[in-house]
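re: ur question from earlier - yeah i can do the single chain one, its not a big deal. heres the input i used so u can compare w yours
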Amino acid sequence: MDQESIHIVGSDAHNTSNRNFHIKEAYDYIEETKGIDTVNQMKDNAQKILNNDEI
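and the output i got, formated as tokens:
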């Protein structure tokens, strides 16, 4: 993240009975270390991918 080379946050959340889902904690950490603007940009980028838009 220091080099701004991470553009989205993802999770392998299809098996939450055997593995915990920690996406909120990940976004909380990013907000604490990089700020809410970075969190919002990552969420926007994820939505753009789902919409097949350029990021």
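DSSP finds two helices and no strands in the chain. not sure if urs matches, ping me
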